[in-house]
Design a protein that fits this description.
It is a single chain. By secondary structure, the protein is of the alpha/beta class. The chain has a domain of about 70 residues. Helices cover about 40% and strands about 25% of the residues. It has 12 helices and 10 strands. The strands form 2 sheets. It has a 6-stranded mixed sheet with strand order 6-7-8-3-9-10, with helices on both faces. Strand 9 and strand 10 form a beta hairpin. Helix 4 packs across helix 5, helix 5 crosses helix 7 and helix 7 packs parallel to helix 8. It is globular. The structure holds adenosine-5'-triphosphate and magnesium ion (MG). The site of adenosine-5'-triphosphate has 15 residues, from helix 1.
Length: about 270
């Protein structure tokens, strides 16, 4: 018997309702993520990548009624109808997410250290001192220099790349099995982008976690993931091994997306 997938998604639909009108933005997609596997989701803006991630986390965008259909199983356990307290336990501890908008995920009036401490004390049940020790360790782990000092800084004292590192530290703080990274590098310049991607690769290796990497940019997933799902208008239109997708895409939409990545040849696919 082979081990069950870490995440098994079947016929996932997501529908927003406004008044009497309903818009289905995820059209019934199915995919698996194996333990420790890195999978890319690529598609143009609006194709439903973030909504798919939020459906898995059961975190709808604020103030919008989102109806999710189909099945999402984590280690065989159905998440779509899991009571909220149990889901809260899964969130953060088993499946963690780095959201697309880093500024809105951090509290501007709290120090970085206090925010991570808080999270560790809430989810991990650590004492104040133990939480601070772990916070400093985590900031070091994601490459923040002088972590003990920087822990007392506020988010605005960090650069965009450093804020993204902090969010990654928060996401991996409870050693999740699956990290969902939604456009983790979009707002960053190319050099910092590469640093953050290397960090994700290293953490994945060190922590043995699976990675769901979401991006509109094929250049970002090169060398990062084993398998790619190409999304278009709420559907998965092509799935394949990363190398195959790059060298022999079968769907014209995939070819079009690939052609739109000018830097790809320079960055390579290895
Ligand atoms: N809060 C919301 N209320 C209504 N519709 C929404 C909401 N959020 C997203 N949508 C719609 O759902 C569809 C998918 O959005 P989603 O955010 O998943 O796109 P995406 O693939 O993540 O795009 P991007 O690359 O720009 O982040 C879009 O058509 C979008 O307009
Ligand atoms: Mg998005």
């Amino acid at each position: 018997m082979t081990a069950p997938p870490l995440l098994q998604v079947r016929d996932l639909t997501a529908t927003f309702t406004r008044g009497s009108s309903a818009t289905r933005v995820v059209q019934g997609i199915s995919f698996d993520i194996a333990p420790g596997e890195a999978v890319g989701f690529v598609g143009e803006s609006g194709c439903g990548k973030s909504v798919t991630a939020r459906a898995i986390m059961r975190l709808a965008p604020e103030g919008t009624p989102l109806t999710v259909g189909g099945s999402i199983r984590y280690r065989g356990q159905e998440l779509t109808d899991l009571p909220e307290p149990a889901m809260r336990d899964i969130r953060g501890r088993r499946i963690a997410m780095v959201f697309q908008d880093p500024m809105s995920s951090l509290n501007p009036v709290m120090t970085i250290g206090a925010q991570i401490d808080d999270m560790l004390r809430r989810h991990g049940g650590l004492s104040r001192q133990a939480a601070r020790r772990r916070t400093i360790e985590l900031l070091g782990l994601v490459g923040i220099r002088d972590p003990a000092l920087r822990a007392d800084d506020h988010p605005h004292q960090f650069s965009g790349g450093m804020r993204q590192r902090v969010l990654i530290a928060i996401a991996v703080s409870c050693q999740p099995d699956l990290l969902i990274a939604d456009e983790p590098t979009t707002a960053l310049d190319v050099t910092v982008q590469a640093q953050i991607l290397r960090l994700l690769l290293r953490l994945r290796r060190e922590l043995g976690m699976a990675l769901m990497l979401i991006t509109h940019d094929f250049g970002v997933i090169a060398g990062m993931v084993e398998r790619v799902h190409v999304m278009r208008e709420g559907n998965i239109v092509e799935t394949g091994a990363t190398d195959t997708i790059f060298t022999a895409p079968t769907h014209p939409y995939t070819s079009a997306l690939l052609a739109a990545v000018p830097r790809l040849s320079e960055r390579g696919t290895a």
